[in-house]
Design a protein that fits this description.
The complex is a heterodimer of chains A (304) and B (458). Chain A has 304 residues and is mainly alpha-helical. Chain A has a single domain, classed as MetI-like (MetI-like fold, Orthogonal Bundle). Chain A contains 13 helices and two strands; from the N terminus they run αββαααααααααααα. With 458 residues, chain B is of the alpha+beta class. Helices cover 46% and strands 11% of the residues of chain B. Chain B is built from 16 helices and twelve strands. The termini of chain B are far apart. The chains are: A mainly alpha (304), B alpha+beta (458).
């Protein structure tokens, strides 16, 4: 009798962890493994799967110009937009933290973009930057900043710029909220001490606030990179939403084609190459895995 | 510790076995499906050797995927009067999601519709998937001689089988604003208006004159895309042979003419189907707009609701072309083929169904018989005739435009990619006026080559 109780006591942690573990295995681990197996085949979703070994990977890495472009675009957009958004969120949080009146109000409206659906965001921005009827062109030409209308959505760097703007606009409120909660954990005595020592506002910000928020920054950097490498919504909705008129995969000269978009397009849109798409997504998984490992290594080194 | 190790071992084996079971299941499922299919095919073969015996007693329940809810809202009740024992489940699927949802449904083997639509944007890909029944074979016994000649190629797959009927004929002409035509051409009669644009050279000449008279404010068409869409549609021909895409043969003439029109500076700068393109319908800056029968509802009346009576329809320069068009086919593994065919035939390929469709939706069948004999269906006014100043639109489309359409072309799997490249390059060709027709062809070759890596593009 006592032996049975002993075993059942030990089992409780596993029983409690089981729902998560089972759902993780079913909805995360299994799809990843199945995706890898699918990537070793050629399949259009209807006919039989045809085993091709690593042929898909070879094709992607040696012949697929668009894959290289997609990786470059994804990294480029992420490396500019993410730090800008994080720093912007930090600055915004700092101003709001010290605000006496209207703090709640500004906190709320700054968070709205984060909860807006990507479809609406795509519509807003593609309409704003539309060549003929877009407000940006109309405003800038009427103010004399532009001599003639500019084709924002059809030039490589302006297209990338708009996607970065969408990412920053969308995520600023989220970063601001996280930083605000981090700031509330900083004891006010630290600020008082700094003020007594004669530190200016900028010195307090750079030498006190930012270092004390290091853990928050690390967390945000880690999660943003993983999310950033999976960028899809913003460029996709910008170029395929209702205002786009037609599907423009990847934007002008494929400048905003991201890896996930390439996977989606190869699997379901331009082609029906599900095995090939699985290979694209699995390669992205490996890239994210490698970068996350590097980040964690850097963090643990710093911790020591 | 021992328990932990044992538990870990169990979990790892479970995970590994899951992955192999996954493969095993799908292949055993595939085998089951195959054998199941063979059995069904055998019994179907026995059934297939007899034609359908469709009557008002025919029973069944079918699923139709469509993005246009008008068929459910307006046609279904009429269909039920004729076939009271056939239940139709309509599922509204957005146009942009159609293929993806269809592929997912087929891959999982669940909820595949019995009636499958093939819009121009993905029709080639759909036909290539080989999931639609040949409608000329038993038990359907449709005949290609019953549909308009120009449509036969567009409804055929690369094996030459007719796998769909047109949801509604989509011959295209140019709709025009009567007030602007009176002002700048001195007439709003369709035939007289046509005299000013009956060739592309005349079109350019007229456009230049109007541009001058209006100080550059009035354009002939909303944008470059409209011109190229027309010239592309007027020069259809087969250009895909296996994995060789002869895009030079396909697009040279179309690009040459379109770029000539572009260089004359007589069309607007609105990209196809964007909000600003749609807004042009209500403005006074453009005279002509491409129009197929469905455009009357979706573009003209929708964008210019106050413009009733101010519109007319004439032909495009030189010849007609098709704008849009959707094939309606039957899923080859459907369990309700008889009911599905009853639906397809009555709604899209019968005189009675076409009369209802004309009245309630303003769309017209591709069945030739509807327009022949003593009482063609366009003898009664269609839903949008009044909007076009009382002009008998259906008669004009069928008698004036349809006979002048060269042909559509066989839909190959590469059609989706070519359409994509067409859309992608339009803004570039429209704004960069230094690009010549030869350079445009090179751009087409480059873009298609990027997307169709395994094909030879010339």
């Amino acid at each position: 009798m006592p032996v049975k109780l002993k075993i059942s006591k030990k089992m409780w942690p596993f029983i409690f962890a089981a729902p998560f573990v089972i759902s993780y295995i079913l909805f995360n681990l299994y799809p990843v493994i199945y995706s890898f197996i699918l990537s070793l085949n050629s399949w259009n979703g209807i006919s039989e799967k045809e085993f091709v070994g690593f042929a898909n990977y070879t094709k992607i890495l040696t012949r697929d110009v668009l894959f290289r472009k997609a990786v470059f675009n994804t990294f480029m957009i992420m490396f500019i937009a993410t730090p800008t958004a994080i720093f912007g969120g930090l600055t915004l949080a700092y101003f709001l933290f010290n605000m006496r009146k209207g703090k709640q109000f500004f906190q709320t409206i700054n968070f709205f973009p984060y909860i807006t659906t990507p479809v609406a965001i795509g519509f807003i921005f593609s309409y704003l930057f539309d060549y003929s009827g877009g407000y940006v062109n109309q405003l800038m030409t009427s103010l004399g900043l532009l001599n003639e209308k500019y084709y924002w959505l059809e030039h490589v760097w302006s297209a990338r710029g708009i996607v970065m703007l969408m990412i920053i606009w969308r995520n600023l409120g989220y970063y601001m909220t996280i930083y605000l909660s981090g700031m509330t954990a900083i004891p006010s005595e630290v600020y008082e001490a700094a003020r007594i020592d004669g530190a200016s506002k900028i010195q307090i910000f750079s030498k006190v606030t930012v270092p004390l928020l290091e853990n928050t920054t690390i967390f945000l950097a880690l999660t943003s990179v993983i999310g950033g490498l999976q960028l899809f919504d913003e460029p996709y909705q910008l170029y395929t939403g209702w205002t786009a008129g037609y599907v423009n995969v990847g934007g002008p000269k494929y400048s905003v084609l991201t890896v996930i978009w390439k996977f989606y397009d190869d699997s379901f849109k331009s082609n029906s190459m599900l095995g090939y798409g699985a290979a694209v997504s699995f390669l992205l998984f490996l890239i994210i895995f490698a970068i996350s490992l590097l980040q964690l290594k850097y963090i643990s080194k710093k911790a020591r | 510790m021992k328990l932990k190790k044992q538990l870990l071992a169990v979990v790892m084996i479970f995970v590994l076995s899951l992955s192999f079971t996954g493969c095993g299941d799908s292949s055993s499922q595939a085998t089951e499906q195959e054998t199941g299919q063979e059995t069904t095919n055998d019994s179907n073969a026995n059934k297939d050797s007899q034609a359908f015996n469709i009557s008002s007693e025919t029973r069944g329940e079918i699923t139709v995927w469509d993005w246009n809810s008008a068929y459910e809202e307006k046609m279904y009740s009429h269909f039920q009067e004729v076939y009271p024992n056939i239940k139709v489940n309509y599922v509204t699927v957005a146009h942009g999601d159609y293929m993806q949802k269809l592929q997912s449904a087929i891959a999982t083997g669940t909820d595949v519709p019995d009636i499958i639509l093939g819009e121009g944007a993905w029709r080639g890909k759909l036909f290539d998937m080989d999931i639609l029944d040949n409608l000329e074979a038993e038990p359907y016994n449709l005949s290609r001689d019953d549909m308009f000649d120009y449509l036969v190629a567009g409804m055929s797959n690369t094996k030459g089988e007719i796998v769909g009927v047109d949801q509604s004929i989509a011959p295209a002409g140019f709709a025009y604003k009567r007030d602007l035509a009176l002002e700048y051409l001195g007439t709003d009669n369709p035939d007289e208006v046509y005299e000013y644009i009956n060739t592309w050279d005349k079109f350019i000449e007229t456009g230049k004159k109007i541009s001058e008279e209006s100080n550059g404010t009035v354009n002939m068409l909303p944008g470059f895309g409209d011109v190229l869409y027309a010239t592309k549609g007027q020069t259809t021909q087969d250009y895909v042979d296996g994995d060789t895409i002869d895009i030079t043969k396909r697009m040279s003439k179309a690009l040459e003419t379109a770029i000539k029109v572009r260089d004359a500076d007589i069309v607007g700068d609105n990209e196809l189907d964007t909000p600003s393109w749609n807004a042009e319908f209500a403005e006074d800056e453009t005279i002509f707009f491409p129009a197929a029968p469905w455009s009357c509802e979706w573009h003209v009346a929708a964008n210019d609701p106050d413009g009733a009576g101010n519109w007319g329809l004439t032909k495009a320069p030189e010849s007609g072309y098709t704008k849009g068009g959707t094939s309606v086919g039957i899923y080859s593994k459907s369990d309700n083929k008889e009911a599905a065919f009853a639906y397809l035939q009555w709604v899209y390929f019968s005189i009675d169904g076409s009369i209802v469709s004309r009245d309630v939706i303003g769309q017209y069948s591709s069945l030739k018989a509807c327009y022949e004999g003593d009482n063609p269906i366009y003898n009664e006014a269609g839903a949008y005739d009044e909007f076009f100043g009382g002009q008998n639109l259906a008669k004009y489309f069928v008698e004036e435009i349809v006979p002048n359409i060269e042909s559509t072309q066989n839909e190959s799997a590469y059609e989706t990619i070519v359409n994509e490249v067409f859309n992608k390059l339009n803004p570039t060709l429209s704004t960069d006026k230094t690009i010549t027709a030869e350079e445009a062809i090179e751009l087409y070759k480059e873009e298609i080559g990027i997307k169709a890596m395994d094909a030879e593009v010339k």
